Amino acid sequence: MTGQTSPKAPPRAAEAPDARDIRTQYAALCWRPALKGGAGVEVLLITSRDTGRWVIPKGWPIRDLNPEASAAREAWEEAGVEGEPDPHCLGLYSYDKGLGPERSPLPCVVAVYALKVRGLADRFPEKKQRRRKWFRPEKAARKVAEPELRALLSSLANWPGHEAAARG
To answer: What's the pTM value of the predicted model, to 2 decimals?
Structure first.
């Protein structure tokens, strides 16, 4: 992950996070028109580096980048995604990020930005550390651990304009 240059970056490993602090991260919900079955969209999930859980690309704010550009940079670094993010926040979810050797919990709120995938690179910074796979939104929702992210993924069937966006 990049961008630990922001004032909202996490504390250093030697510092214990304050449970009252809530940090912001930005994520990319990478999507494409469904290849099989015609209608709808597919979303890209990646595995986390530490636990191998299915997640979406996310990270800390990156200095000099707006939120959606930060999300797009994370999508490139973690999944090799090439595309343009939507400037409107699609939704939010929260989780506790484990930091340091003791995996001390740091509460985070993640702002999610839709990113229509134009292409996937064969080579990208975290290629050897992660897997990536396309899922229908309903199946992706069952794969992630965070309840709010699960609800966001489930809602994609009712995503306003996704049919037109998928064709365009």
So the answer is: 0.81
